[in-house]
Automatic annotation (TrEMBL):
Organism whose genome encodes this protein: Halotia branconii CENA392
Name this protein carries in UniProt: Uncharacterized protein
Annotated stretches, region: Disordered: 54-83
Length: 83
């Protein structure tokens, strides 16, 4: 089973190196029906690299630290209620 050393950079933990175990799958592409070979660390792929090329990892969304409370607003009126 081939293995790779990859560089992992995260904001919540210190950057470190991690060893992932990859496998080479021989399969028939679901879209183009061509026999192909693809290396992956997840489940068996369905598509070849021409039909579905590898994508960059998704960025995690930024969560605001604190939600601010709404401020009271003062409205100006044309009508004077003091008279």
């Amino acid at each position: 089973m081939p293995s790779k050393i990859i560089q992992v950079k995260e904001y919540t933990v210190r950057a470190h190196k991690r060893e992932i175990h990859t496998r080479v799958f021989n399969f028939v592409c679901k879209q183009c029906d061509e026999p192909t070979k693809r290396e992956t660390f997840g489940p068996r792929p369905l598509y070849c690299e021409k039909c579905r090329p590898p994508q960059a990892p998704k960025k995690s969304s930024v969560v605001p630290l604190r939600k601010r409370k709404p401020r009271a607003t003062t409205y100006k009126s044309d009508v004077d209620l003091a008279n």
